[in-house]
């Protein structure tokens, strides 16, 4: 049985892994923090709510039709519900971390 038969091919993969690891270090330094990502997503939810209010005001003034109002309000509603579910999951994870014994 020849063990070293595949060794030359594995070296190619090792070089690729080293390159990927180096790229990962560069990307992690340039990447956003968790709080920045969370704030950005919450800003998007807020923008949907504001957009929904603007469309409703447009409907009241006669500039928008009911279809646009329904679409905007449902988008705002769904984005808010998703944010609430994510918040609930984060709270559950936080509570689980607090229960862990060190």
From TrEMBL:
Matching Pfam families: FliE
Leader sequence residues: none
Chief location category: other
UniProt lineage: Bacteria, Bacillati, Bacillota, Clostridia, Eubacteriales
Name by which UniProt lists this protein: Flagellar hook-basal body complex protein FliE
UniProt entry keywords in alphabetical sequence: Bacterial flagellum, Cell projection, Cilium, Flagellum
Claim: Nucleotide-binding is one of the keywords in the record: no
PANTHER family listed in its UniProt record: FLAGELLAR HOOK-BASAL BODY COMPLEX PROTEIN FLIE (PTHR34653:SF1), PTHR34653
Superkingdom to which the source organism belongs: Bacteria
Intracellular or extracellular location(s): Bacterial flagellum basal body
Family per similarity comment: Belongs to the FliE family.
